[in-house]
Design brief:
The complex is a heterodimer of chains A (about 45) and B (about 280). Chain A has about 45 residues and is mainly alpha-helical. Chain A is about 75% helix and about 0% strand. In chain B, about 55% of the residues lie in helices and about 5% in strands. Classes of the chains: A mainly alpha (about 45), B mainly alpha (about 280).
Chain lengths: ~45, ~280
């Protein structure tokens, strides 16, 4: 039973990641990650 | 697995996630395509060495945008790491977890072992997770966790300031607060094993919720277990493996398996074959 749930979660993870890629969200992550996050480093 | 082997994996994971070594000297952060992928552990993307994106920073960035974008991509990656590894991410891949372990190795007159009494305090990380996810929905562009709590971001700020003199005059009150949090964490790590992971880390909370279902898991063979409780005494996360080896607190470090005199405890990837015919607690 737990094994089934694990595979379901992995499938859900793949579906969510796929949806995010399809919507171009990886590009938004890149856009945020290549600039210094002022809040993160304690400036903003 | 030996503790030395786990230590090597932790060191390699930290180095891999911070492979832009030149950045530590120039103070310039990496801008390559690999930064579109979230790393599994807590590693600030503004760290000069970081070659991947921080999952919590990315999550808050989506939730703090207007109009709010549901972070399918980040949630998918978090769920993937969680379902595959659970809190083994904390035990093997998280640089902040490794840093706390290194600090805990420093000799100190009194070390708090197991720390089982701190149950309610451990729930704090779930509250912080809830705030991390909900606050950006109400306060646009404010990554609550990154701004006020994240020790990885503070370290990134220190490294940037060391490498780039132009950053130093910009560090103000928020940095002072974050530095105080970092100093407290360092001090607590001398006394307690992985205090940030136990009490505060929202990423640990996410993976903890996945621990019961993850492919990488622990098993106690009921036929071999003699209930000596040596595993519980060895656990530095305060878990009682003989009762709940897949507890949300277990980081899969394997201390319990090494302490077990009968070899009843096993950590590894669960397969359909291992599920069949195995009697476990």
């Amino acid at each position: 039973m737990k094994n089934t749930l694990t595979w379901f979660l992995l499938a859900a993870a793949a579906a969510l990641t796929g949806a995010g890629l399809w919507l171009g969200q990886h590009a938004l992550v890149l856009q945020k990650a290549v600039r210094v996050c002022l809040e993160c480093v304690g400036i903003g | 697995m030996t503790d030395r082997k786990r230590f090597s994996i932790q060191a390699a994971a930290t180095l891999l996630q911070n492979a832009n070594l030149r950045g530590f000297f120039t103070g310039r952060i990496y801008q390559g395509a690999s930064k579109s992928v979230c790393v599994p552990g807590l590693n600030c993307y503004s760290c000069p060495g970081a070659v991947g994106a921080c999952p919590l920073g990315s999550l808050q960035s989506f939730l703090g945008s207007r109009p709010v974008k549901l972070p399918y991509y980040v949630m998918g990656l978090l769920l993937f790491f969680g379902a595959l590894l659970g809190r083994a991410v904390c035990g093997f891949l998280c640089p902040i977890g490794w840093l706390q372990e290194l600090l805990h190795r420093i000799p100190f007159p009194k070390k708090l072992r197991g720390d089982r009494a701190s149950g309610p305090l451990r729930k704090l990380k779930y509250l912080i997770l809830a705030l991390t996810v909900t606050l950006p929905l109400f306060f646009a562009l404010t990554p609550f966790f990154c701004k006020y709590l994240c020790p990885a971001g503070t370290l990134a700020g220190i490294l940037l300031a060391l490498a780039d003199a132009a950053v130093r005059p910009l560090l103000g009150g928020i940095f002072a607060w974050k530095a105080a949090v970092l100093v407290s964490l360092v001090a607590a790590s001398l006394l307690v094993f992985r205090p940030f992971c136990k009490y505060l880390c929202p990423l640990g909370a996410v993976y903890g919720l996945c621990n019961r279902f993850s492919l990488y898991r622990g098993e106690v063979d009921a036929d071999k277990c003699i209930r000596c409780e040596k595993c519980a005494a060895a656990c530095r996360m305060g878990v009682e493996p003989q009762k709940a080896i897949n507890s949300a607190e277990c980081i899969r470090c394997g201390d319990c398996a090494r302490a077990c005199p009968t070899g009843a405890i096993r950590m590894g990837f669960r397969t359909a074959r291992s599920e069949r015919g195995k009697k476990s607690i």
